[in-house]
UniProtKB/TrEMBL annotation:
TM spans (from-to): 7-25, 45-68, 89-113, 133-155, 167-186, 192-214, 235-255, 267-289, 310-333, 353-379, 386-405, 411-429
UniProt-listed InterPro entries: DinF-like, MATE_fam, MATE_MdtK
One protein family per Pfam: MatE
Top-level taxon of the source organism: Bacteria
Protein's recorded name: Putative MATE family efflux protein
Annotated compartments: Membrane
């Protein structure tokens, strides 16, 4: 049985814009924390904060698949108008989040013992990292619970609700970091307590707003929650997205490793230019989120016209956004580079390679959008496999282009990697679409 719904430009933007704004609040938080600790005038405190933040970004970033997987599953249940399964998706995600948080707390002593020594030899910096980590890790269950809540509300087609929760989370974090870290003079510990408290507050508010809206008559049973097929589907989806994310991070790590062979100045210039790609990704992620919700909803509704329309419109807006971003960075990239570094040598090299960085948004637009489609449609195995294939092709490009063209070859390989991911995924869409909608009838 089909449940038709209309996909319009307005619907796409009503999802993409709030999600983009939510994503953009995250870098503001990092800037505030750095500014708060930076005003203390203690180099070891700033270094310890930076390493501690990287450590949590590495751990939590690798586990952020949890949010996207929940979005895809919730979107399909929403498309089927299956309130019982929608609630079951939420509670499975909630239980998984709490279990993941408990595991994080159990592993914390080992991480606390080993990680600082691996990341720096400076004893005073290590002490700062340990203090920061020991405080922030306390809120791990709340952090993963926020992933589950955000994934659920995005999947249910409530991006403004998700934006409000992200503003609450990051806004409270910023405010508490200033009050505790700067005004009360707690320094790095104050920043960590501010983050932990904000995570707990956002999770509590999210639960208080989501749970009461559930219909008591559609409450899932224990058998629904522990359904073996559904749990296997959730585990497989999470595993595939995790592999995809790890390979993607590996590609960026390889970029840094190869770039280091060109010397410290070129390595620094590449690091500055990667900020342009990261800024582009924040905007493209919002449109990927729209593709994720709408494609998942269409599959759940068993309505292929809406699925096709969702792919078309999210592609149009993704490439339009990528084109605007490329033009912006080509026109204003030099002032941005001068803002990010004061080194004349680094500035000169970064400006020379600026066009490559400006084009990363265009090269990756299709990949971002296709990721959203494949996650929403629960085609995670194919997404994982195409990522692995693209990574192999990326390695071949590095071996071929870097010896011939040095850093130009490195940036060309990155752009090819982004482009290949999108093309490989798009090539699979017709076959997977036919399979999904036949199976859903």
């Amino acid at each position: 049985m089909s449940r038709p719904f209309e996909v319009t430009h307005g619907l796409v933007l009503s999802i993409a814009v709030p999600m983009t704004l939510g994503f953009l609040t995250t870098p503001l938080l990092g800037l505030t924390d750095t500014a708060v600790v930076g005003r203390l005038g203690q180099a070891e405190a700033l270094a310890g904060l930076a390493i501690g933040a990287i450590l949590f970004d590495l751990i939590y970033g690798s586990l952020s698949f949890f949010r996207t997987a929940t979005t895809g599953l919730a979107a399909q249940a929403f498309g089927r108008a299956d309130e019982r399964e929608l609630q079951a998706v939420f509670w499975r995600a909630t239980l998984s989040a709490l279990a993941l948080g408990a595991l994080m707390l159990a592993l914390a002593p080992v991480i606390l013992w080993a990680a600082p020594d691996l990341m720096t030899d400076d004893r005073s910096v290590q002490a700062v990292v340990r203090d920061y980590f020991a405080i922030r890790v306390i809120s791990s269950p709340a952090t993963f619970l926020n992933y589950a809540i955000l994934g659920f509300v995005f999947g249910r087609g409530q991006p403004k609700f998700g934006l409000a929760l992200q503003i609450l989370l990051n806004g409270t974090n910023i405010l508490l970091s200033i009050i505790l870290g700067l005004w009360l003079g707690w320094g790095v510990a104050g920043v960590a307590w501010g983050t932990a408290a904000a995570e707990v507050l956002a999770a509590a508010v999210g639960l208080a707003l989501v749970v009461p809206r559930f219909s008591p008559g559609s409450r899932p049973t224990r058998a629904d929650l522990l359904d073996r097929y559904k749990l296997k589907q959730l585990f497989q989806l999470n595993a595939d997205i995790l592999i995809r994310s790890l390979v993607l991070n590996g590609a960026f790590a390889l970029l840094t490793k190869v770039g280091s062979s060109f010397g410290a100045v070129t390595l620094a210039a590449n690091a500055v230019l990667m900020n342009i790609f990261m800024l582009s990704s924040f905007f493209l992620d919002g449109l990927a989120g729209a593709a994720e919700q709408l494609s998942g909803r269409a599959v759940g509704a068993n309505y292929r016209p809406s699925f096709n329309r969702a792919i078309k419109l999210t592609a149009v807006w993704s490439f339009a956004m990528a084109g605007v971003l490329a033009a912006f960075f080509l026109l204003f990239g030099q002032p941005i580079i001068q803002l990010l570094t004061t080194s004349p040598e680094v500035r000169e090299i970064a400006i020379a390679y600026l066009p490559w960085a400006a084009m990363t948004g265009l090269a990756g637009a299709l990949a971002f959008q296709m990721d959203g489609v494949f996650i929403g449609a629960i085609w995670s195995r194919e997404m994982r496999n195409m990522m692995l294939l693209s990574f192999v092709a990326y390695c071949v490009a590095l071996l071929t282009l870097v010896p011939a063209y040095a850093n130009h070859g490195l940036w060309a390989a990155l752009n090819l990697f982004l482009l290949m991911r999108g093309v490989f995924l798009a090539a699979m869409v017709p076959r997977k679409t036919a399979q999904s909608f036949i199976a859903a009838q």
